[in-house]
Amino acid sequence: MKPRVIAGVLGAITLLMGLGGLVSPERTLAFVGFAPLTPTQPALALGEARAAYGGLFAVLGIFTLWGAIDPPGKRTALLMAGSLWLGLCAGRCLGISIDGNPGIFGWVAVAWEAGFGGALVWSALAPMPIPANAERE
């Protein structure tokens, strides 16, 4: 598959995840198994969900889509996006080593984050074919 297609698809999915977090933080919190600790301050938990699961992922998706336009030319954006996904995976793996088995949802999240991160890093570093009509030195 072409790096541009991979980055574009992953960018679109990430952007949709972010928009979901912005529009429906309650549903996002329920999906990841969280609930406000203090029922008297739900705005704090909803704001955190909008920030982390919404705004952060929306911008990450936008940068990934931007990188998909020209993967070799936007290598830095794709490497940043891939590194952020791999950072999520590393943090989750550290948590697993300290806190124990996270259950099926946690392991699926590890695979999801590692897959997204690895695919974006590959998209950034994959050699691009030289067009047949390009001048050669």
Summarize the helices and strands and which ones pair or pack:
Elements: H1 3-23, H2 25-31, H3 42-69, H4 75-99, H5 103-125
Helix pairs in contact: 1-2, 1-3, 1-5, 2-3, 3-4, 4-5
| Quaternary status | single chain
| Annotation field: number of helices | 5
- State which percent range the strand residues make up: under 5%
- The run of helices and strands is HHHHH
Distance between the termini: 28 Å
The largest pleated sheet is described as: none
Rg (C-alpha, Å) = 18 Å
**Overall body shape:** elongated
- Uncertain runs are none
Tell me roughly what share of residues is in helical segments.
over 70%
**SS-based structural class?**
mainly alpha
What's the pLDDT, averaged over the residues?
A: 91
Total domains: 1
Find the count of extended strands (DSSP E, 2+ residues). 0
What does this protein look like?
With 137 residues, this protein is an all-alpha fold. The chain has one domain. It is 76% helix and 0% strand. The two termini are 28 Å apart. The model has no long low-confidence stretch (mean pLDDT 91).
Write a concise synopsis of the structure shown.
The chain is mainly α. It contains 5 helices and no strands.
Name the descriptors:
single chain, 137 residues, mainly alpha, 5 helices, 76% helix
